[in-house]
Design a protein that fits this description.
Elements: H1 7-18, E1 24-25, H2 26-32, H3 39-52, E2 55-59, E3 66-70, H4 73-76, E4 81-84, E5 90-92, H5 95-109, E6 119-122, H6 125-129
Parallel strand pairs: 4-6
Antiparallel strand pairs: 1-3, 2-3, 4-5
Length: 130
């Protein structure tokens, strides 16, 4: 829970809620909000939101720049995520499939994965068609 909700935090949160489950760089967010929020405030609030658990920071495929993904904590908890390397859209893997995958890894590889922190990268159906 944030210590306090500033006007800048509120604007940033509203922006992120409109882009739920999209991978966005801090630079992209700062550019989009440059008329209302300073760049330093964007970076500071992203860091705070990550620490609070309302935002996930993930490595961007093919780049050293990290991207951020805002997700509803309730629907996102314990889900495996599938992220398109072309369009950046991230979706939740179906629970039954995710459970089978994690169980198989546990049994066959003796490895437990953290579903809430795992992102599987590939190309979505829409990008494969286009």
């Amino acid at each position: 829970m944030p210590k306090y909700l500033t006007k800048q935090r509120k604007l940033l949160t509203e922006y992120l809620m409109r882009h739920t489950d999209e991978n966005l760089s801090a630079g992209q967010i700062a550019r989009e909000l440059s008329d209302t929020i300073s760049k330093s405030a964007v970076y500071r609030n992203l860091s705070d939101m990550e620490a609070e658990g309302s935002l996930h920071r993930v490595a961007s495929g093919g780049s050293r720049e990290a991207v951020y993904r805002y997700s509803d904590r309730h629907t996102c908890s314990g889900c495996l995520h599938l992220s398109c390397q072309k369009c950046g859209k991230t979706v939740h893997m179906k629970k039954q499939l995710a459970d089978r995958l994690t169980e198989s890894l546990s049994e066959n590889e003796n490895f437990m994965i953290d579903k809430g922190e795992t992102v599987i990268y590939g190309v979505c159906a829409a990008c494969r068609k286009g």
